Amino acid sequence: MHSGQKQKLECALYVVATPIGNLRDISLRALDVLTSADTIAAEDTRNTSHLLSHYGISANRLSALHQHNERGAAEKVVGLLQQGQSVALVTDAGTPAVSDPGALLVEMVRAAGFRIIPIPGASAAVAALSASGLGAPHFLFYGFLPNKSAARRAALQTLIEHPYTLVFYEAPHRIVESVADLKAVFGDEREIVLAREVTKLFESIHRCRLGEALVWLNSD
Question: Among 41, 108, 111, 179, which has the highest number of CB atoms less than 10 A from its own CB?
Fold first, then answer.
């Protein structure tokens, strides 16, 4: 059970997974680390403040680490570790450094000789796959496709012969264009599962063929 009391943590970088929507999807161990870490490096301090407030955890140890300042912020984190401090790394949702900021920080901390401790938790990709019904014993997690259609189609062309289920992330404002490119590359008959708002109030997990997906998206 989460004690709510601050404890002394080992000097290390703690890579902490946070909820992908439902705030109850966080581990007791993650709450212990967020309570006790000397510093919390967060992708968006406002979002993380909301999570911490929900669990009665002080937010006065937050510092920003995102894609626009990661190298400079990572250097500061290494400096804190050199002083013997413990640092927790979080992003807005899910696991840091996986299609989210943090990979450069982890690389720099490892190069500096400090321990990196993963605190696992919710994963949008695995949650969606588990409810897809595709029965995929093997899958390739690709992450985000390129923003532009030509580059996106070129990337998809390299995956045509891949034998496993493919898992992508996509921003809501690009989903229609990306599905159109998937249809153009893989054809009408390839099955697709569109998972949106996973773990949230308006969660939707829809399975169909690519030839039907655009009609569903445009009518939903």
Answer: 41
3-state SS, residue 143: strand
**Sequence-ordered strand ranges (E) for 29-99:** 39-42, 62-64, 87-90
What would the CATH number be for the domain defined by 124-219? 3.30.950.10
Q: Which of 48, 71, 56 lies closest to 3, judged by CA?
A: 56
How far apart CA 49 and CA 42 sit, in angstroms, is 9
Q: What is the pLDDT along the chain (220 residues), one digit of tens a residue?
A: 566 678 899 999 999 999 999 999 999 999 999 999 999 999 999 999 999 999 999 999 999 999 999 999 999 999 999 999 999 999 999 999 999 999 999 999 999 999 999 999 999 999 999 999 998 789 999 999 999 999 999 999 999 999 999 999 999 999 999 999 999 999 999 999 999 999 999 999 999 999 999 999 999 7
Residue 138's H or E segment, with its range, is none
CATH assignment of 13-119, among 2.60.40.2550, 3.40.50.10420, 2.40.170.20, 3.40.1010.10: 3.40.1010.10
Question: pTM here?
Answer: 0.92
Q: Which residues make beta-bridge pairs with 168?
A: 143
